[in-house]
Design goal:
With 195 residues, the protein is of the alpha+beta class. The chain has 8 helices and 4 strands, in the order ββββαααααααα.
Length: 195
């Protein structure tokens, strides 16, 4: 289909052309905009092509996870950093209410948002974690078998939590970090604040 081509449609036929056409490499996205002609009453479709740069999203996400790996002291092990990041942010996500989570991820790179919401079962109530030990155990549960070797001791889990929060502080506004810290019990705040 040609870019910018107008396709006229008679409204009485009730047929609309809507959708997205993707090309293999450059991912141009063709949008169909349905409009009514001012004088004839006929509908026509105006197409517009935009190029989405998914490579930028990938680079941003890789950079984010590399920052986590650097904070953990394992800059060469991106896979481990990704597993740890997922476990910590999924535990954080389950601890926050949906509006708080949405405010937080609004400041994340696109694919990091996808990691955050992966497997999310939204409920109005945030999971109650009263003690630091509960949060540490929740991080272990979120990591599952994949992080069994990553989280041998509670100190390793605390180190992971600090590393992820340090990276979050680099990407999220201070006001939003303060809002998140305010939702945690006082026992948690030193761990997160010193990150």
């Amino acid at each position: 289909m040609d870019t910018g081509r107008e396709i006229r449609h008679d409204a009485r036929q009730g047929k609309y052309m809507t959708g997205i056409i993707r090309c293999h490499r450059f991912v141009p996205v063709t949008l169909f905009i349905r409009r009514e002609h001012a004088f004839t009453g006929h509908y026509y479709i105006k197409t517009t092509t935009m190029t989405s740069n998914f490579n930028k999203y990938i680079r941003d996400a890789e950079q984010f996870v590399k920052e986590v790996a650097t904070e953990l002291g394992i800059p060469e092990d991106i896979g481990k950093a990704d597993r740890i990041f997922r476990a910590v942010v999924h535990t954080l996500r389950n601890r926050l209410t949906p509006p708080e989570s949405l405010q937080l991820i609004a400041q994340f790179p696109m694919l990091i948002k996808a990691i955050y919401v992966d497997g999310w079962r939204i409920s109005d109530e945030a999971r109650r974690l009263r003690r630091l030990g509960d949060f540490i155990e929740a991080v272990r549960e979120q990591g599952g078998a994949g992080t069994h070797d990553d989280f041998v001791t509670d100190l390793e889990v605390e180190k992971a939590i600090r590393a992820v929060f340090r990276v979050l502080k680099n990407h999220v506004s201070a006001g939003e970090i303060s809002d998140i810290l305010a939702t945690f019990p006082k026992e948690f705040r030193p761990l997160l604040a010193e990150a």
